């Protein structure tokens, strides 16, 4: 029932009363004056939301409640009415819950649990500052690489780009384009599948490439195995699509030098992958054993991009390749694979010391594990199987067992 808002015509006192008569003579509690109706206060009844079980029954035929673990409810699923798990997830989330479909002992179980609050507010200045610092650090790294490249041109009288600042800028823009595109590939895939994530953050670091890469933070669960493959493969593929043309242009600018110029112990040799070797053959043709290549800084940026693609596609823990492998493998099998690859990386440190750090990193991430997608029941689509196979091929052709030697 509506309530009346009254105002005293003498002193202006206003209050709400349980009546809607137009005039209340002498009703003002302050001065005893007459009060007139000036408005209405209407109580709006909130629409009653359906219970979580009522909502679930729209999408699944459920057996009785099997278990209650605190706030987690576990049901057996008799049949699935709605195959689009992401659609169901969006509707259930409106009620403040998340769900997960898992297989156990030949049964399909539905887990229902309170949705976690996802804080998406970010300070854009942090991202901008890191971007600028990384631009500076990669430019400085490119400057150092350019000095070595120009020295070679001058020592041997070879024509080439001798502007140190132009070469440094080319390296900086090249490597940041590769890394940024890699992370934006993840961001776009996450957005498509409703996975909440941040924009890329670049990481400046004083090294020969001037950065530790770029990252995005995923802040909500991956809904399906199809989404996990999309998120895992999108970054490496997107980054590689930029790394290939960067490498081609960089190789065209590189210097062909006599092998005698590459003095043992004074030259750092870059390990080659099948892909980088093929691009070198395509751009520079068949080179004799008596010559070598001094890479232009832009070619080094492309080489780093291919290496980053390989490292990210290692099928372990929560690396990009790890998400793809977890979509294809049970959790226990994936955990065993992760530990095996961690120890293998430590063994490969015989060829390159950096593998020791990668091995330790993989083992540490392996302790956390990879929970996989919320829906582990819905079959993978054919396109995702092909995408996973493509990622495996890219992993093989970009592999560099010994990235550096001297």
Shape category: elongated
The biggest sheet, with number of strands, parallel, antiparallel or mixed sense and barrel status, is: 4 strands, antiparallel
Q: What is the percentage of strand-forming residues?
A: 15-25%
Proportion of helical residues? 40-55%
Low-pLDDT regions: none
Rg over CA atoms, rounded to whole Å, is: 31 Å
| Total DSSP E strands | 14
Count of DSSP H/I helices: 11
Give the termini distance in whole angstroms.
87 Å
Class of secondary structure makeup = alpha+beta
Mean pLDDT: 92
How do the SSEs run, as a string of H and E? EEEEHEEHEEHHEEHEEHEHHHHHE
What spatial order of strands do you see in the largest sheet?
Answer: 2-1-4-3
Describe the structure.
The protein has 406 residues and is an alpha+beta fold. It contains 11 helices and 14 strands. It has helices at 52-56, 85-93, 124-156, 164-192, 225-253, 274-284, 297-312, 320-328, 331-348, 354-368, 382-397; strands at residues 3-8, 14-17, 23-24, 35-41, 60-69, 72-80, 97-104, 107-114, 201-204, 211-215, 255-258, 269-270, 291-294, 404-405. The chain has a 4-stranded antiparallel beta sheet, with no helix packed on it. Strands 5-6-8-7 form a 4-stranded antiparallel beta sheet. β5 and β6 form a beta hairpin. The longest helix has 33 residues, at 124-156. The protein is elongated and about 110 Å long.
